[in-house]
Design a protein that fits this description.
An 8-stranded mixed beta sheet has the order 3-2-1-4-5-6-14-15, with helices on both faces. It has a 7-stranded mixed beta sheet with strand order 9-8-7-10-11-13-12, sandwiched between helices. Helix 6 crosses helix 7. It is α/β, with parallel strands linked by helices. The longest helix has 28 residues.
């Protein structure tokens, strides 16, 4: 199979979908890998390193999309990228389609088969290709939240962990999944007063047992969210419903009632965000204020640390890339319910029910759509 790796063009995105070690694995199995010139510069990988691994360097994204059977990316395709996709081509990347009707329609019109990292499920549960980036984003959330609480950055001037004789900052983490778990770990290490809110009692028991009361836990209700948000200096939202638009759990009214200089970090921004006041930002312009509350809503948080993030992503995605390349789309997905759940768009049809519902499109079962491929 011919596998293409274009340079990421989303603003402030420096990750790369395939590192030289991954390219070497593909080439060793008889596949051809085409890498756009300069695609690895964000992670410190020059073109010659890719050449040494067996890749062929091409000068433009147009050539990558034109010659590849499968395009492997990190972030969702931008307009000029989805316009280069074609019928019969496989796209393997993060998509986050539920809050993005334009991209969904663009992928449908292209005729490609788009497989989303974030909706592939794991044998033991969970989302194995989303997990590594959730780890990075969760840990980052604690760090950037602490940074923007500084007065010089618009915060109320509270040190997250306090000092002797001075109380630490109260922090609420909404969502106890992978991002939330990593955010809590960092926050505890920084000495904050942490409360985690979730509807999964098993997850709350895990937090309680692991931290032995060091972390407070509350079942998620409108009242518990409101009470904790209003009492917190930092609120981190990490709520995820796989493939769906994130629920708006923190209202504009709650934001307006928070103390001025408080900070909110929306890790769920890729799926539309879990604050009513969320709008996507970039690493170069990461924050804005609403009613005096600092909002950090960067849509590709792990892109700030592209070397670490790319290595973690490759560790997770490589087995799936190899399976798709070795077997082709139909054979790779048929009989594998977990990979099948990653198919979001196929031959002009939406194959992920939550995405179809979000945009009012007809939903077609993934198996039915695959069967229609020649």
């Amino acid at each position: 199979m011919k596998v293409g790796v274009p340079k990421e063009i989303k603003e402030d995105e420096n990750r790369i979908s395939l590192l030289p070690s991954s390219v070497k694995e593909l080439v060793g199995r008889g596949h051809e890998v085409f890498v756009e010139s300069g695609a690895g510069l964000g992670v410190g990988m020059m073109d010659d390193v890719y050449i040494q691994s067996g890749a062929k360097i091409v000068p433009s994204a147009a050539e990558i999309f034109g010659c590849s059977d499968m395009v492997v990316k990190v972030k969702e395709p931008q307009r000029r990228e989805w316009e280069m996709l074609r019928k019969g081509q496989v796209l393997f990347t993060y998509l986050h389609l539920a809050p993005d009707c334009d991209q969904t329609r663009g992928l449908m019109n292209s005729g490609c088969s788009a497989v989303a990292y974030e909706t592939i499920t794991g044998q033991g549960g969970g989302l194995p290709l989303l997990a590594p980036m959730s780890e990075v984003a969760g840990r980052m959330a604690a760090y950037v939240g602490s940074q923007y609480l500084a007065k010089v950055h618009g915060g109320k001037g509270i040190l997250l962990g306090g000092v002797a004789g001075v109380r630490p900052a109260k922090v609420t983490v909404i969502g106890g999944g992978m991002s939330g778990t990593n955010a809590v770990a960092m926050l505890v290490g920084m000495g904050a007063d942490v409360t985690v809110i979730d509807r999964n009692m098993s997850r709350l028991r895990d937090f309680d047992a692991h931290y032995k009361g060091r972390v407070k836990t509350e079942f998620s209700t409108m009242q518990s969210i409101e009470e904790n948000v209003l009492a917190s200096s930092l609120v981190i939202g990490t709520v995820l419903i796989p493939g769906e638009t994130a629920p708006k759990l923190v209202t504009r009214e709650m934001i307006g009632s928070m103390e001025k200089g408080s900070v909110v970090v929306d890790v769920a921004v890729d799926q539309g965000g879990c604050f009513e006041t969320t709008r996507a930002t970039t690493h170069h312009d990461p924050v804005y204020e609403v009613d005096g509350v600092v909002h950090y809503c960067v849509a590709n948080m792990p892109g700030a640390y592209p070397r670490t993030s790319s290595e973690a992503l490759n560790n997770a995605t490589l087995p799936y890339v190899l399976k798709l390349a070795d077997k082709g789309l139909k054979d790779a997905l048929e009989g594998d319910v977990h990979m099948m759940s990653g198919l979001n768009v196929c031959a002009g049809e939406v194959c992920y029910e939550a995405v179809a519902q979000a945009h009012g499109f007809l939903y077609v079962d993934a198996r039915e759509a695959l069967a229609s491929l020649v």
